[in-house]
Design goal:
Layout lengths: L2 E7 L4 H4 L13 H13 L5 E7 L2 H10 L7 E4 L15 H7 L1 H9 L2 H6 L9 H15 L7 E6 L1 H10 L5 H5 L2 E13 L2 E11 L2
Helix pairs in contact: 2-3, 7-8
């Protein structure tokens, strides 16, 4: 039997507005972010979620709490759904990161997928292979016990884009340079060892 996941990005944060790298660090939702969370709650109101999971980071957890506030379901937090770790560059600007590792980022654009996913920009920055390992662990821990059910999973934009790349969604080059809007989501169907993207909302490809 299949298990259905709605993997949703959190609402807008103060760090998003300031173009700050949050990673495993955190910043609160803005007023707009709170409104986005309420809106996606309404848009998903007819989806019969059995239970909810969230990254343990505050911005994802807060968004999840708003989405399920009128539902009698449990919210479980997990480190497996966290955003990519950016090490010493967390809470610094994206410009700082790109300027420091410009050669590495240019190389990433040219590498084939298998090499790219395992390439490390820096020892303390997670690569896509490490993100996929975390996600695979999450799926293995939750899919079997929830066969035939629909689950909510709150996560983060960079993490979710890495999932699309791993799952072969769309044109690789366009996904590679695209991004998720706040509260965009992936509807993922898991059946046995198969994972299929059924719907994507709020992803902007280049």
């Amino acid at each position: 039997m299949k298990t259905t996941y709605y993997i949703v990005r959190h609402g807008e944060t103060e760090g998003n507005i300031k173009l700050i790298i949050q990673g495993h660090s955190d910043s609160p939702l803005t007023e707009k972010g709170l409104e986005q969370a309420q809106l996606i709650s309404e848009q998903l109101s007819e989806i019969p979620f059995h239970t909810a999971y969230s990254s343990d980071l505050g911005r994802a957890k807060q968004t999840a709490e708003i989405i399920i506030k009128d539902r009698e379901i449990k919210l479980n937090t997990t480190t497996h759904l966290r955003e990519r770790c950016f090490g010493t560059y967390e809470m610094r600007s994206y410009d700082d990161l790109y300027k420091h590792y410009i050669e590495g980022y240019e190389l990433l654009k040219k590498l084939p997928h298998e090499e790219r996913r395992s390439y490390k920009i820096s020892d303390d920055i997670e690569n896509d292979e490490e993100l996929w390992k975390r996600f695979s662990t999450f799926i293995s821990e939750t899919s079997g016990m929830n066969e035939g059910k629909t689950l909510l999973a709150l996560s983060h934009g960079g993490y979710m884009k890495a999932l699309l790349l791993e799952l072969g969604y769309g044109e690789y080059e366009k996904v590679l340079t695209g991004r998720f809007d706040n509260t965009g989501y992936i509807k993922l169907i898991v059946e046995g060892n198969q994972m299929n993207v059924e719907e994507v909302k709020g992803f902007i490809s280049s």
